[in-house]
Amino acid sequence: MEQPFITLPLSARIPNLEASKIREIAELGMSMPDIIPLWFGEGAWPTPQHVVDVATNELTNGNHFYQPNSGRSSLRQEIANYTNDLYGTLIEPDRITVTASGMQGLALVAQAIISANDRVVIIEPSWPNISQVCIISGAIIRNITLTINKGRWHLDMNRVISSLTAETKAIVINSPNNPTGWAMSTQDQTTLLEHCRRLGIWIIADDVYARLYRGANVAPSFQSIVNVDDLFISVNSFSKAWSMTGWRLGWINAPCGLESIFAQLTELNIAGPPGFIQAAGEVALREGEKDIVNLRKKLSDAYDITAGYLSSSDRIEFVEPDGAFYCFFKVAGANDSLTTAKTILHKTGVGLAPGIAFGEPGEGYLRLCYAQDPATLTQAFDRLSTYFLS
Q1: Residue 186: phi, psi to the nearest 5?
Q2: Within 13 Å of residue 372, how many CA atoms lie on the same side as its CB?
Q3: Most buried of the four, 14, 22, 39, 257, by CB within 10 Å?
Q4: How far apart are the C-alpha atoms of 201 and 193, rounded to whole Å?
């Protein structure tokens, strides 16, 4: 029996939150048979077996107990080693906080640095959870929109710099970007860093797709150019590059003075990820470079199939991404992307994310996660052809 609606005394911030339109499509599709789900940011391939084996052994050997709030010291050291090897830095483990996913990392950062009515700048289109987690902490969001210039996604740095005033608390940079795949250049990162230094503005880098960069082994990163005293925080996750989405494990790299604050906030959230999962994260970092190379090869093959299809349709405006594992494409006549995604789902059985889920600039676009095996992608595009050619 349906319960009567009751007005509840909730936080004034709750009405400002928006339900995920990605989830709206996914939950609709999950109840349907024979669906090819390309809606989430999740690869089709399981976690490497040697990582799974470590977690299994840890459980068998009794690793069932609470962990330090900042994470196991051995994992924090491994993350520091990984970061230093990748970026040529010299960070110490006291800059590292282990989190239960990149999402929780962003939440902890927002809780730590954002107060009510603080201004936060976010690049759009963007993963909706970034702005939502800032709104929960009371932020006022200002968006800067990516544009298309000479067939590539482009960020107008003049607009960015003019938007960052003394009243701005932070700017969030997700590069490579979800959903567009845009990646920020080292030159633009340097320009932004120098401006934020002058005004005392936090730079929060969502680096989850750093290793899924199509131009090199790793995307350009603020971590290669910042100083130890810069107002800079990097949030990362094991989900994408290590194929560990369901494990919920990530980390924060921040000025060491924040470690105790994050530890306290972790205590007040979930008291840290389980020890057996953290042990798996250690071996993923220590022995997983070959797994990342293998994943990148699979993604390259999958991208070629996807780009070949999307660029062949007259109804699709295809923009080549720099990284991540998405194609964000505009569909002629699709002025309501949520309705379009639902229509495609019902007519073809292929689940795509609606562009409006990533902010108003995403309207008219659809996002496709191409982290799938070739047979699945081929089947998906055979089905989509019945829609795009009709």
Answers
A1: -60, -40
A2: 22
A3: 39
A4: 9
The average confidence (pLDDT) of the chain is 95
| Amino acid at the residue 280 | A
C-alpha–C-alpha distance, residues 229 and 7, integer Å: 47
Q: Is the pLDDT of residue 1 over 50?
A: no
Is the distance from CB of 253 to CB of 229 less than 8 angstroms?
no
Q: Which strands sit side by side in the sheet containing 119-124, from one edge to the other?
A: 96-99, 250-253, 232-237, 202-206, 168-174, 119-124, 140-145
Q: How far apart are CA 77 and CA 73, in angstroms?
A: 6
In the prediction, which pLDDT does 3 show? 58
* The pLDDT value given to residue 244: 98
Spell 119-144 as b/e; 16+ CB within 10 A means b.
Answer: bbbbbbbbbbbbbbbbbbbbbebebb
The pLDDT assigned to 2 comes to 54
Residue 10 has what pLDDT? Answer: 84
Q: Write out the DSSP string of 1-49.
A: -PPPP------TTGGG----HHHHHHHHHHTSSS-EE--SS--SSPPPH
Residues above pLDDT 70, as percent of the chain: 98
DSSP letter (8 states) at residue 179 = T
Give one DSSP letter per residue of 294-316, joined into a string.
HHHHHHHHHHHHHHHHHTT-TTE
Nearest to 223 by CA among 255, 199, 195, 264: 255
For the entire predicted model, the pTM comes to: 0.95
List beta partners, residue 253: 96, 234
Residue 48 in this model has a pLDDT that exceeds 80: yes
For the chain, the distance separating the N- and C-terminal CA atoms, rounded to the nearest angstrom, is: 43
Q: What is the pLDDT of residue 15?
A: 84
